Write a sequence for this structure.
């Protein structure tokens, strides 16, 4: 299997860093869910919070890597403009390939425009939850409303990452970056 350097960067962005975010979600969610009275002994509190923090910070790092790589490396290739008046292969310009066909124009008009914005919410929300768990620590166990709030924010961050990943995969299928 031959892959161009652009395809390698795109795979690293989505299939490695993006997939790591999605896979780490369950570990972080279970860690947050179990930080409750009666589920964690006084002796095990520090360890449970530390393990949950490690998973959350790992997920945040992967989310930032995916978003930054997508924004600064992969996205410019997607938006590249064809040379004016010259002959070119439309498939080399994914945005313009999508816009050239009525059946795929919505992939850019809705899908990519939405993906550009929602993807940034994922690392911001996940980082916020990781920072809160690291800072508040055992206070999360004592305050069920705080734990539920963090779980909600974390789940919204995961949903943002999932939507961005799904849209990215579908757009790349319709107009791949070569």
């Amino acid at each position: 299997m031959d892959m161009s350097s652009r395809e390698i960067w795109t795979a690293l962005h989505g299939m490695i860093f993006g997939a790591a975010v999605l896979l780490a979600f369950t570990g972080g969610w279970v860690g947050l869910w179990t930080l409750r009275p009666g589920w964690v002994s006084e002796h095990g509190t520090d360890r449970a919070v530390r393990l949950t923090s490690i998973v959350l910070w790992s997920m945040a790092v992967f989310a930032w890597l995916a978003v930054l790589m997508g924004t600064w490396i992969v996205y410019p290739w997607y938006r590249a403009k064809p040379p004016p008046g010259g002959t070119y292969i439309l498939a080399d310009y994914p945005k313009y390939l999508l816009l050239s066909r009525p059946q795929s124009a919505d992939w850019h008009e809705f899908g990519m425009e939405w993906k550009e914005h929602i993807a940034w919410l994922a690392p911001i929300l996940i980082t916020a939850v990781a920072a809160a768990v690291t800072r508040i620590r055992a206070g999360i166990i004592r305050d069920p409303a705080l734990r539920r709030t963090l779980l909600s924010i974390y789940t919204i961050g995961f949903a943002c990452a999932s939507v961005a990943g799904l849209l990215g995969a579908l757009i790349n299928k319709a107009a791949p970056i070569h």
Observations:
- The chain has one domain: 5-77+90-153.
